[in-house]
Design goal:
By secondary structure, the protein is an alpha+beta fold. The chain has helices at residues 19-25, 62-68, and strands at residues 3-6, 9-12, 50-57, 80-81, 87-94. The protein has one domain (3-94): Ubiquitin-like (UB roll). The chain is built from two helices and five strands. A hairpin with a 2-residue loop joins strand 1 (3-6) and strand 2. The protein binds FE2/S2 (inorganic) cluster. Residues 39-40, 42-49, 67, 81, 83 line the site of FE2/S2 (inorganic) cluster.
């Protein structure tokens, strides 16, 4: 049984499960605070479920590669769409700041941060 590590939690799942589904069923989210309710629900079009993943996962789908090539993403291969990614073994997941989780040049979010605005800045 693969294990997904995210924000200090370890979640067991079945091989082949979609990463976004695994996280949401565990009460976690691959979305930033603002995008948690405003997203495409796993269709692969909004790009807000982008996360960094290390470990055994499926190859990017055509839909995923297309969405990650459109700004604010840059298609550099650093991020995956959790809704299009299937877990094939133990994985570690990180979410970066920004509405789309696109600020990979900043430290990943730990889950303890205050809510963020659309520009990724902390709200007062
Ligand atoms: S939920 Fe919209 S791209 Fe994954």
């Amino acid at each position: 049984m693969p294990t997904v590590s995210f924000r200090g939690r370890e979640i067991g799942c079945e091989r082949g499960d979609r990463l976004r589904t695994v996280l949401r069923e565990a009460g976690l989210s691959p979305h930033s605070d603002g995008a948690d309710r405003l997203n495409c629900r796993g269709f692969g079009s909004c790009g807000t479920c982008a996360v960094a993943v290390s470990g055994a996962v499926s190859e990017p789908t055509r839909r995923e590669r297309l969405r990650l090539s459109v700004p604010p993403h840059d298609g550099d291969g650093e991020l995956r769409l959790a809704c299009q990614t299937r877990v094939l073994g133990d994985v570690t997941v990180q979410k970066f700041p920004g509405f789309w989780g696109q600020h990979t040049d900043e430290p990943p979010l730990s889950g303890d941060e205050p809510p963020q605005g659309d520009d990724g800045a902390a709200e007062p």
